Amino acid sequence: MPNQTIAVIGLGNMGGPMAANLVAAGYTVQGFDVVPAAQEAAKTAGVQVRTNVGEAVTGADVILTMLPNGALVNQVINEAVEALTQPALFIDSSTIAVEEAKTNATLAEAHGHRYIDAPVSGGVVGAAAGTLAFMVGGAKEDIAKASPLFDVMGRNVTHCGDVGAGEAAKLCNNMILGVQQIVIAEAMVLGERLGLSAQAFYDVVSNSTGACWALTVNCPVPGVVAASPSNHDFQPGFATDLIVKDLGLAMQAAESTGTETQMGAQAAERYQQLAQAGYGAKDFGVIIAAVRSNHQ
Fold it and tell me: Taking the model in full, what pTM does it have?
């Protein structure tokens, strides 16, 4: 049995299943989340849910954060370093800005701790199945210490470089993902209007050059891929509000580096419009509703 204690801060759609997999692997997992439903689900999975961050990190060897934005990650690290009485490793699997990750690392290291950024790809399905892909930034020795945990929660780990490099890879990946989900929606609607069934579209494209996660896992038409949020009224999954946040970070990075990202910018604008139309809490595959509504 593993002898480490892991604190998981953020027990939502992603952090909850990740924590549950660590419990199933034999780790002692202490957790915290502000949402009562997330707390109850985590308790059912065997997580020892605490009443605040300080209690959750007490005695922990590793602190794993999975939170909606960089401000919350920084707040949690500030609270954690005040409660910790022994050196710990922070693993942040949130998607935040590169500079935010570097700031968090400086904060943790100033208090005698270590920090790596380890955002993930694979969505809720991957979190539950333990098949996430981790893109990691940090020192090799810190990543080696985290490796057994990554093996439980994921299927692939890529060391991208120093702290912040994991976030850089994640922002690039999610810009691609956002664009792909739009074009899959557009192509499926075009196929419908040409008389092509969703199943026939899927059978062809999933085995052809257009194959991508946005279709094979997150198919926006129900009845084709059983685990897709489209079968459950687009309950996330990966919420539209989150792709808006991630693409916003990508566009900030593009501006700061002088990089032309026309498709990324268009995707960011379309998801922003989708969120403003009231779909922010829905899975981002619901972009197909906006495509259908724009019938010429």
Answer: 0.91
Q: Is 121 helix (H, G, I), strand (E, B) or coil?
A: strand
Q: Where are the beta strands (DSSP E) in 146-189?
A: 154-161
Can 245 be counted among the known catalytic residues? no
How do residues 105-141 score in pLDDT, each as one tens digit?
A: 999 999 999 999 999 998 888 999 999 999 999 999 9
Helices marked H in 25-139: 36-44, 53-57, 70-83, 98-110, 123-129
In angstroms, what CA-CA distances link 96 with 93, 182, 249? 9, 23, 7
Q: In Å, what is the CA distance from 28 to each residue of 5, 7, 49, 59?
A: 5, 9, 11, 11
Catalytically annotated residue among 43, 140, 170, 282: 170
Q: Are 280 and 241 in contact (CB under 8 A)?
A: yes
Tokens 């829905």, residue located: 282
On whether the CB atoms of residues 31 and 22 are closer than 8 A, the answer is: no
Segment 156-182, tens digit of pLDDT: 999 999 999 999 999 999 999 999 999
